[in-house]
């Protein structure tokens, strides 16, 4: 990757050389100048280039100076204040003895080493020792009795020059030390920053590899889907993702589509225009993603137009797509070809509707003739004949109700289901449902308990359809409750918030509703099957296992009626403990 240039450079050369540089600096500021100077002085004495007036004093001073010079080397360059100030002071003493023993001003050059060591000492104490030592060196010949007193100007000017020079050197050394400290600190910070950069580079490299692996995995997953089309677009609808399922469904290869075509190219313009008009969207793309933009996702049927002009009914799931920063980057369209499925459903509905109509006519005729035969006073029936014909009539009525249910579900599926609204007293509807189910409940040994308001509870709706829904709930509860059980019908007024929560007391933002609950102590419904309970012709495993009669249309019809009235139908059930269905309907303003 591009960050490979940061990959593990060698150890930092400058910080590792700093100790060596520091040792050299200490040597230059310390014993090296003095050692060189005293070595030169010893050479001059040995060569006789400098006269010796007092040998004892001369050689004693040289010995003292050399010992003081060698002591730092033997002590491994001690940096204590005593050594840093004391040894140059002792060296000055040796120089003073040499000056007095030779009575030669040429020995004053030996002051350079000690004075330099004192001038480079951290602090002003080294300057004071240097000035005092210089004064002592100048006075030593006089004090030793071997020379006249030096001129006052010399005693003043010499120490003054030393003081000024030492102060200048001290200040320069202070600045140099500060600069060296800054350099060391900066090198340390540089090393830390380099380490951080390397660490971040490693993290970025790892993250890049993870992202690349995830992208590869996602691409593999998308490419593995061949039965559904997966199409990804940018915010303008230009296609960026086109999987093999899309190639198979729409007849175009990926290179011919990606970055070249829009998702709108594969939709019916008339369908998009109708959607835009219905939603008020300004563009066809906005109409296509309108619900997904508002709700976060949308699943509905759209008509896809393939490359050869073939039209397919496709169930498309639309979701927004974000980039790695979480910014909206476009849309995902996952489509499942439902052409054959929808055609089969239409054929099934047409078949159900056709068969229902065809059955209703002969059944009505059968029931009509049965009524004529059973009520014919001129030719009365025997008790046995009447019993047989009563069985025929009962089963014919049962078939007629089943045909009616089939017709009703066909009307719901085709959108031809209508209501005839009026004010309906739900309490009267509940009592009528109890009366209808009373005989069958008594035969099965099931107790029905009714709890409704004495003054009634009025809703706006279709009395026949609401009665049908209530009858279905009560008859189901009786059928699925074994002998000795109980079915309780409860009707009460409550208040419902916008989020669907129902409370007993009126609160701000709530609307009055009627709650009709039908609770039984029967078989219950397995949790895994409750989501399919309102599907046409679905029968739970408990119903099949206990051979409870039915075709699985009652709850579908009840759900459709409740929804058509602007209400909701909920259930709470536990297998072996019973079931409670709760129908929630909005109350009329008058109520």
From TrEMBL:
Its cofactor is a divalent metal cation. The keyword Hydrolase does not apply. It catalyses: ATP + protein L-histidine = ADP + protein N-phospho-L-histidine. GO terms for molecular function: calcium ion binding; phosphorelay sensor kinase activity. The chain crosses the membrane at residues 32-50, 95-118, 125-144, 150-170. Residues 354-589 form the Histidine kinase domain. Residues 214-271 form the PAS domain. GO terms for biological process: regulation of DNA-templated transcription. It comes from the Bacteria. It is an enzyme of class 2 (transferase). GO terms for cellular component: plasma membrane. It is found in: Cell membrane. This is histidine kinase. Its EC number is 2.7.13.3. Keywords: Kinase, Membrane, Phosphoprotein, Transferase, Transmembrane, Transmembrane helix, Two-component regulatory system. InterPro entries: HATPase_C_sf, HATPase_dom, His_kinase_dom, HisK_dim/P_dom, HisK_dim/P_sf, PAS, PAS-like_dom_sf, PAS_fold. The keyword Transmembrane applies.
